[in-house]
Amino acid sequence: MFKEFLKELNGRRVEGEMLKTAVVSLLTSAIFLIGIYFLSLKNISEFIPKYGLDLFFISLSYALIILVVRQIRAYKEFACMSGMMIGMTLGMISSFLIGFYVASINGMFFGGFFGIAVGFLFGIWNGKCCGIMGIMEGMMAAFMGGLMGAMTAFMLINDHLKIAFILVFIISAIIMVGLNYMVYKETKEREREIKEGYFSVIVLTFVLMAITTWFIVFGPRGGIFA
Amino acid sequence: MKNTTIAVIIGLVLVIGGIFFFANAQSISGDYNNQNSNTSQASQNGNVQKVVLSLKNYNYYPNMITVKAGEPVSISLDNSIQGCYRYFAIPQLNLGKALPTPSDTLDFTPTQKGTYRFQCGMGMGYGTLIVE
């Protein structure tokens, strides 16, 4: 069954568009960051050493989240159990990843609540595919993931945080592939309900990257990061 | 373009980008302490050895303190230290105390020579106390 899923990554269903979605999202982030760097951020001393690794992983995280969102949106509605799992996974992973990377710059309080906000957005948006239960699950997972991600980054500040950046992303990516596979299994007998172009991917990536970049570069900092 | 080609391109970009940013990233990691460890002798005030710690690059500064055995030591934390770093502990000596203001001190008299680890309440900030 998993082999069939891998074959579909080259197929005509929405799974065949997932890698392209990741490329579009990464390109949007890269163009945005390169543009804003040469327009304004290059004047900030040591911008790349301070923020480069964070922004790199934040771009990857949004690409990872947005490709899953595209797959889920294509089928619109799910059974309760699947919808709850979708809301929980997206709420948890998005809030954990963003909370983790933002907290390593802005501190636990601001990183945690920024992560929760992002997790709420994705958890509610995708959890509503099965109604209020998915929404509730998405919100609860975002609440937990945001604080956990931020706390993990904060506690690792003097203990191999850079390596944790990579490991946290890899683990999250594996979980997201699991969700892709689950959605594929649930929907392989169904027809796609929504067909969208890549404009929404570009807009969503741009808006999220703009807000996150502003927040980590110019936003408030707490505790030992002040 | 086939999706496998796209996947290979994404993989290459990730590896190259990852190596570049990883190599250039500021030391927001455990290697900071090895590169920037610093030693300080406690200042003598009467017969009390006074140590004032501050915060630098997310850790106590100085993070290596030398004191004399058998003489009282008084450790305080300045205003730059915040959050859980204000709980100061030396676990091997069974010492630990919250020092919420710069005037609060952890007072003790080391009796045995040796090297002891000091740390914040959760072990995130840390350093070494050398008793000579």
Description:
Chain A has 226 residues and is an all-alpha fold. Chain A has a domain at 79-188. Chain A contains 8 helices and no strands. In chain A, helix 2 (18-39) crosses helix 8 (199-218), helix 4 (80-106) packs parallel to helix 6 (132-155) and helix 4 (80-106) packs antiparallel against helix 7 (161-187). The longest helix of chain A is centred in the N-terminal third of the chain and has 29 residues, at 47-75. The N and C termini of chain A lie far apart (51 Å). The mean pLDDT of chain A is 91. In chain B, strands 1-5-11-10-7-8 form a 6-stranded mixed beta sheet, with no helix packed on it. Chain B has helices at 3-24, 31-36, and strands spanning 39-41, 43-45, 48-56, 59-61, 64-67, 73-77, 87-90, 95-98, 106-108, 114-120, 126-131. By secondary structure, chain B is α/β, with parallel strands linked by helices. The radius of gyration of chain B is 21 Å and the shape is elongated. Chain B is built from 2 helices and 11 strands. Chain B starts with a helix and ends with a strand. The chains are: A mainly alpha (226), B alpha/beta (132). The A-B interface holds A 9-10, 16, 19-20, 22-23, 26, 46, 48-50, 52-53, 56, 60, 104, 154-155, 157-163, 166, 223-226 and B 2-4, 6-7, 9-10, 13-14, 17-18, 20-22, 24-26, 28-30, 32-33, 55, 58-59, 81-83, 85, 122, 124-126.
